[in-house]
Amino acid sequence: MDAPFSKISVLGAGSWGTALALLLDRNGASVTVVGNDPSAVERIQASRENQPYLPGVRLPETLRFTTSIEEAADSDLVLLAPPSRALREVASRLSTVSLKPGAVLMSCTKGVERGSGLRMSQILAETLPEHPISVLSGPSHAEEVARKAPTAVVLGCPDADLGRRLQAVFSNATFRAYTSEDVVGIELGGALKNIFAIAAGICDGLKLGDNAKAALVTRSLAELVRLGSALGGRSETFQGLSGIGDLMVTCFSAHSRNRAVGERLASGEPLAQIVSSMRMVAEGVPTTYSAFDCARRLGVDTPIIDHIRLILDGQISPEKALLALLSREPRSE
Question: Which among 193, 207, 213, 320 is annotated as catalytic?
Answer without folding.
Answer: 193
